[in-house]
TrEMBL record:
Family the UniProt entry places it in: Belongs to the class-I aminoacyl-tRNA synthetase family.
Organism encoding this protein: Methanolobus mangrovi
One MF term in the entry's GO annotations: tryptophan-tRNA ligase activity
Name of the coding gene: trpS
Function of the molecule: Catalyzes the attachment of tryptophan to tRNA(Trp).
Protein name: Tryptophan--tRNA ligase
EC number(s) from the headed UniProt entry: 6.1.1.2
InterPro entries: aa-tRNA-synth_Ic (IPR002305), Rossmann-like_a/b/a_fold (IPR014729), Trp-tRNA-ligase (IPR002306), Tryptophan-tRNA-ligase_arc (IPR020653)
Catalytic activity: tRNA(Trp) + L-tryptophan + ATP = L-tryptophyl-tRNA(Trp) + AMP + diphosphate + H(+)
Length: 434
């Protein structure tokens, strides 16, 4: 099956396992064991997949530098889906990651036709204020794409490595697609790679927490990162079966290859366009040396970005959440009492009658109220397991269950909105103003 994911359309990905086979996203299950205090989304299989997350677990375990980065298009209300990404960014920041949040105003301007003023207004008043209220620390970086010279310059450079066929294969661009829309695709790649620029400490693993629909950006960026790099390390085998590494480059200056040949310890041989290494037993050291030489000769030495993929909540009425159906989603800025009422009207996995419910049990896996507990309203795993079991056993009644979810929703929104008021006065700590 040929599955195209378009991050600009709210496509419902109903079978996540296809992503493993089709796009090479790896299951997250095994990663969880490597993490000391996993985020609840990790334990609960809400984050279900990743690319190269082993680089991040290694950095967290051994106190090595790493970054976390994600972006938000300022096009509407901040909702629970955005909250998920923000929580993932903040969790990585708490684990020692240098955190970056980009407001994708170039994307909103080119794809949605939003004015720059509107982008700024929504970017700050909806997204950034909630990000700070949720716990983003001022040592992280919050920026607007249109105001970041580093991102814009890098986007231009990346543009020289991306061609139209590649972009249209990933995003389905056609002859009608405007150039700014294409530029916004490479700008997002620049968002993802710029934490590795010299001014932010140079090459390092960077994780991008996203919904599965954003994977095209990740694939494009990983490809562009490779293309920008001066050197490529290949594992090879000679005709006698002896293994060796070959560092290859089409674009590196001759002096850079010579320098590599001199600096790499052990038996090496310099050829035109490549250096072969016959006894490298420390791959990390080899990689480090290659990156150092590349940086000295003006290259980027990007580490291909890692990513995590979370699944989406369904709408409160079942089906998809949609900004055009207010009853299907909750915004972090809406009236807490009104939000509680929405939760009380939500579609449950309950049976037609109380009698049936007691006899057959409910279906929490089909219940949007249970999803609210799972994603947002219950931190304690034991409490969540109890809700699940009681529902399945038929000892839980939907009315009471919805009342609990509504009460917690109202409490969360009330507290969050109070924290937002405090956050408004702290914008200058983040180099921002309204
Ligand atoms: Fe959903 Fe609760 Fe009803 Fe179970 S009892 S179906 S979790 S609302």
């Amino acid at each position: 099956m040929n599955m195209k994911i378009d991050p600009w359309s709210a496509l419902n990905i109903d079978d996540y396992s296809k992503l493993f086979d089709e796009f090479g996203i790896l299951p997250f299950d095994e990663m969880v064991r490597e993490i000391e205090n996993p985020h609840k989304f990790m334990n609960r299989k809400i984050i279900f997949g990743h690319r190269s997350y082993d680089l991040i677990t290694d950095a967290m375990k051994h106190n090595k530098p790493f970054s976390v980065m994600s972006g938000f298009m300022p096009s509407g209300k901040i909702h629970l889906g955005h909250k998920m990404v923000m929580e993932e960014i903040i969790w990585h920041q708490q684990q020692g990651g240098d955190a970056f949040v980009g407001i994708a105003d170039r994307e909103a301007h080119s794809v949605r036709g939003m004015s720059w003023d509107k982008c700024k207004d929504i970017g700050i008043n909806e997204y950034i204020i909630s990000l700070i209220a949720l716990g983003f620390e001022p040592d992280g970086h919050i920026y607007f794409q249109s105001k970041s010279e580093q991102v814009k310059d890098l986007a231009f450079e990346l543009g020289s490595k991306a061609n139209f066929s590649e972009l249209s294969a990933i995003y389905g661009f056609t002859g009608e697609t405007n150039v700014a829309h294409m530029l916004s695709a490479v700008t997002q790649s620049a968002d993802i790679l710029h934490p590795q620029l010299e001014e932010y400490g140079g090459p390092k693993p960077t994780v991008i927490p996203v919904g599965a629909d954003q994977d095209p950006h990740i694939r494009l960026t990983r490809g562009l990162g490779h293309k920008m790099n001066m050197f490529k390390i290949e594992g090879r085998e000679d005709k006698n079966g002896n293994k060796y590494f070959s560092i290859r480059s089409k674009a590196a200056p001759e002096e850079a290859l010579k320098e590599l040949n001199e600096r790499i310890p052990g038996k090496t041989k310099l050829f035109e366009g490549h250096v072969d290494i016959f006894n490298a037993d420390d791959f990390e050291l080899l990689l480090k040396t290659v990156r150092e030489v590349e940086l000295e000769f003006g290259g980027y030495a990007f580490v291909p970005p890692s990513s995590t993929y979370h699944r989406f909540m369904s709408g409160l009425q079942g089906g998809k959440m949609s900004s055009s159906v207010p009853d299907s989603y909750l915004s972090l800025t809406e009236d807490p009492k009104g939000a509680a009422k929405k939760v009380k009207r939500a579609k449950t996995g309950g049976r037609m009658t109380l009698e049936e419910q007691k006899k057959l049990g409910g279906e929490p896996d089909k219940c949007s109220v249970y999803e609210m507990f799972l994603f947002h309203l219950v931190d304690d795993d034991e409490e969540l397991a109890q809700i699940y079991t009681e529902c399945r056993e038929g000892s839980r009644v939907c009315g009471n269950c919805k009342a609990l979810a509504a009460e917690r929703t109202e409490k969360f929104l009330k507290e969050h909105q109070e924290l937002r008021e405090v956050a408004k006065d702290r914008l200058d700590e983040y180099g921002l103003s309204i």
